[in-house]
Amino acid sequence: MEKERDTMTLDELQDKIRAIYGVKDDRRGKDGTFIWFAAEVGELGEAVRLGEKQGMEEEIGDCLAWLATLANVVGVNLGEAVQKYVDACPGCGETPCICPGKP
């Protein structure tokens, strides 16, 4: 029987990533971390292009982990960073978004 996986808040994810990788992340710095994040986004793009559901899930997880790492390195709280999306589109103030020119 497969164990149910727990979910995490953004703050919990960021704290967990810091606990696991913080020392390595600090040594790598923001430039090195950004390069790793960008590489993961490229791998996600390939999985999306190929339509690989499992690959997309794995790469989205990797991108989110590297984004949390980058946020840690540069001192940004992910939960606070997304607050502008809590109520509606930050551009037009509507849900769903009705901004002209945005797909």
Structure characterization notes:
- The chain contains three helices and no strands.
- The protein has helices spanning 10-50, 53-74, 78-81.
- Helix 1 (10-50) packs across helix 2 (53-74).
- The longest helix has 41 residues, at 10-50.
- The radius of gyration is 16 Å and the shape is globular.
Summarize the structure.
With 103 residues, the chain is mainly alpha-helical. It is built from 3 helices and no strands.
When the domains are counted, the total is 1
What string gives the helices and strands in order?
HHH
Biggest β-sheet: count, sense, barrel?
A: none
Secondary structural class = mainly alpha
Instruction: Tell me the overall shape.
Output: globular
Please give a handful of descriptors for the protein shown.
Helix Hairpins, mainly alpha, 3 helices, globular, 103 residues
Ordered list of secondary-structure elements with their pairings:
Layout: H1 10-50, H2 53-74, H3 78-81
